[in-house]
Amino acid sequence: MSKIKVLLVDDEEAYVKTLAERMEMRDVESRVALSGEDALKILDEGDPPDVMVLDLRMPGLQGMEVLERVKRDFPHIEVIILTGHGGEQEEKEAQRLGAFHYLQKPADTSLILRTVRSAWKKSLQAAVEFVKDSREEFDRGMSAAALAQAGATDAAKQVMQEAEAERGRPRAELDAEADDGVKSLKVLLVDDEEDFIRTMAERMEMRDLGSDVALNGEQALQMLADELPDVMVLDLRMPGIDGMEVLRRVRMTYPQLQVIIMTGHGSEDEEVEARRLGAFDYLRKPVDIGQLMETIKSAGRARNSAE
Question: Rounded CA gap, 114 and 274, in Å?
Fold first, then answer.
């Protein structure tokens, strides 16, 4: 199995080189860029990484601009923001521009590595989809050529017209048709902020993904006893049984259930603990609905593959 290739971009030379050494010890191939300009130069030279870990505040080209250029010119590269200076506004902007995740320094090396591996898995999935799409287009072209050679020119034109029409449709529309399994997922949303969680459920319904809502840990555990969903999206801070205790009980009683933590109050220590207990992923509010949907889809695939 080939190593994960990571490009670390940070102007704090001692810090980033130490991080690179720690990654190499864990069988992750790392390169270092000490500025945004150096990072883009490395990308332009070829042999791009699978994942980029990117600081925000650097002399010259700032991290946010690097992120924007990378997602425009190298959309297959997953970008993790790792910064000690950003705030909530920067996190929202990074998510809008397509960052895979947003971590605050100082971040535990094991947490960074887990996030890198999650980003790598997503980049692999994107590569698989690209190959699949390319193969389908190639097969259509060959079919059209065979029909034309046999004299069925009208049929050949029809095949190519269908390919052109599909190529011009939005990616999200094609994905929605192809990913029938997502619509069958059962999702339980657990959060004591009732307006927030019901709004989230409505937005998911608009995307053809049904969900149930629990407003506290006790209610969630009762609902699990009645009917087990495929994925649970769980807040940490709630009255009564908090989210971490719910996660512990779920992993003990329903190990097949995938749990995504979604919280606005968690700390890095709590993220480490949640992942140790077996959380599928850890998202910080405010969460982009597209990011949440992609994470739920990934969790659903993990649930299905575990059967």
Answer: 12
Q: From edge to edge, which strands make up the β-sheet containing 28-33?
A: 28-33, 4-9, 51-54, 78-83, 101-104
According to DSSP, the residues that pair with 6 across neighbouring strands are: 30, 51
pLDDT score for 7: 94
Domain boundary among 153, 178, 203: 178
Using only C-alpha atoms, the chain has a radius of gyration, in whole angstroms, of: 22
| Per-residue pLDDT tens digits for 144-198 | 555 455 445 555 455 455 554 544 444 444 444 444 445 578 899 999 988 888 8
Q: What is the dihedral of CA 9, 111, 114, 97, to 10 degrees?
A: -50
Running DSSP on this structure, what letter comes out for residue 80?
E
Query: Percent of the chain at pLDDT above 70?
Result: 79
- pTM score of the predicted model: 0.47
Residues belonging to the chain: 307
Lowest mean pLDDT among 65-74, 121-130, 205-214: 121-130
Q: How many angstroms separate the CA atoms of 192 and 205, rounded?
A: 20
The token pair at 87 is 């705030």
Tokens of 264: 């606005």
Q: From 233, 251, 223, 253, select the one nearest 299 (Cα to Cα).
A: 233
Q: Which domain holds residue 112?
A: 4-122
Cβ contact 95:65 at 8 Å: no
The domain total for the chain is 3
Domain end marker among 136, 151, 178: 178
211: β partners: 187
90 and 170 together in one domain? no
